[in-house]
Amino acid sequence: MRTLAIKVSGDVIRRARIDRRLTQTELAQEAGVDQGWLSKIERGKVTTISPAFLRKIEAVLGRIEVTPELASATTSAESS
Known about the structure:
Layout: E1 2-8, H1 10-19, H2 24-31, H3 35-42, E2 48-49, H4 51-61, E3 66-72
Antiparallel strand pairs: 1-2, 1-3
């Protein structure tokens, strides 16, 4: 099955988080996402995320520049 995944730069998320003076733990708690996934995204270990994950992060950080792409369901970060 193919689903929409969002290609994201971990550096963009990290800069936005730091600009707002949040730790990864604080951002994860405020957004209701897993801190482990957030860490992997920021380090570039995970490069695609689900639209739901993006919405949760953007609710705290504001708009994040991303690229939509089709990916298999197993490659996108579905963690919330």
